[in-house]
Amino acid sequence: MTLFSGRDLAVVEAVLRDAARQEVMPRFRRLAASDVRAKTGPHDLVTQADLAAERAIAAALRREFPGCLVVGEEETAADPALLDGLSEAELSFVVDPVDGTSNFVAGLPLFACMAAAIVRGEVAGAVIHDPVGDDSALALRGEGAWMQAPDGSRHDLRVAAPVPVAQMAGTASWRYLPEPLRSRVGANLPVLAAVWDYRCAGHEYRLLAGGHCHFLLFHKLMPWDHAPGWLLHREAGGFSARFDGSPYAPTVTSGGLICTPDEAGWHALRAALLGE
After folding, report:
1. Using CA atoms, how far apart are residues 249 and 229, in angstroms rounded to an integer?
2. Domain coordinates of the chain in residue numbers?
3. What local confidence, expressed as pLDDT, does residue 1 receive?
């Protein structure tokens, strides 16, 4: 397997930060009506910021990593076959240029620029950049996860200590669950201490990896939404698996995902929310 180094990760972080500064933040709270359109429905939006940032990120990654495959959310919407290359490419990148587009459109400062490096189907590096705070959460496979400030200073990320289900707080993205699972999970949510939804997986994964919540639950697993955060959480010491207990893979887009501080907590939370 081709190695993906810390130096490579720093290049990816710089690419995202530059795109955020040049293409995303200048458009924040300055969007015209013509700059926004719906894709699959009113809760699935794309803006000129998404499109411009993805073009900039893809061009920079191809320049810095010649021969790599870039799978961006917006480009894949037009050509879903791009996903097929993730399992075979020597080096590929999945990119979400503006994660939390609905928040971005609403003028809420809760969105992220995300990318993950994938080496022959395995997630090797991750960056979740906050354009508003101008800092980044990073992870390198086997070498930990950390938060990095604009001046380069950093501190390690670590998941929260395990707690019983009744004390768990986090995100349960139930709206995409199929019935009858959707109703079952919704009815079981009161067993938890607190549940919220930031409409931005990037910030939710940052909270989780930093120990500020205990769990995340998702159904749809598009790789640009979850590959960066999955590695961040794993390298911060967490445990995750799909609903059936199988491991996460960026090449699989269904089957749900539960992330918790440890394996025992995963089993307890799955039984509490998904059990009959």
Report:
1. 12
2. 6-156, 165-274
3. 41
